[in-house]
Structure to design on (122 residues):
């Protein structure tokens, strides 16, 4: 069961890096399609800057999870992985509440919630 927890943590990290790639390097059309926001908005320079900044944070979360999972000794690993999974879970909940889009909670939150439960209990 521990291997399943590691697998889910790894998936959450990859998802964070994938979101980072879209937010930082995606086209305005890709941003509009992926995040279900108006194309006119995603073409604005301020929106592109904000999206790239948000992508940077997603990248930090993904890399932090990977480094915690594979490089930290076991004492620090449990705390660090738990912390990053809680951060991602909170971000998913906030994204859902602030945007009203349940899709965020489902796509970003579900893997993080499952990984967190598996990580803590197994």
């Amino acid at each position: 069961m521990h291997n399943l927890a590691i697998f889910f943590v790894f998936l959450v990290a990859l998802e964070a890096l994938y979101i980072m790639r879209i937010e930082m390097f995606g086209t305005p059309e890709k941003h509009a399609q992926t995040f279900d926001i108006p194309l006119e908005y995603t073409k604005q320079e301020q929106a592109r800057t904000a999206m790239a900044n948000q992508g940077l944070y997603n990248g930090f979360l993904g890399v932090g999870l990977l480094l915690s999972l594979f490089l930290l000794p076991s004492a620090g690993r449990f705390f660090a992985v738990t912390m990053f999974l809680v951060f991602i879970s909170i971000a998913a909940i906030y994204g859902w509440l602030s945007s009203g889009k349940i899709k965020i909670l489902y796509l970003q939150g579900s893997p993080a919630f499952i990984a967190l439960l598996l990580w803590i209990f197994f």
About this structure: The chain is about 90% helix and 0% strand. The two ends are 6 Å apart (CA to CA). Residues 31 and 42 are 7 Å apart (CA to CA).
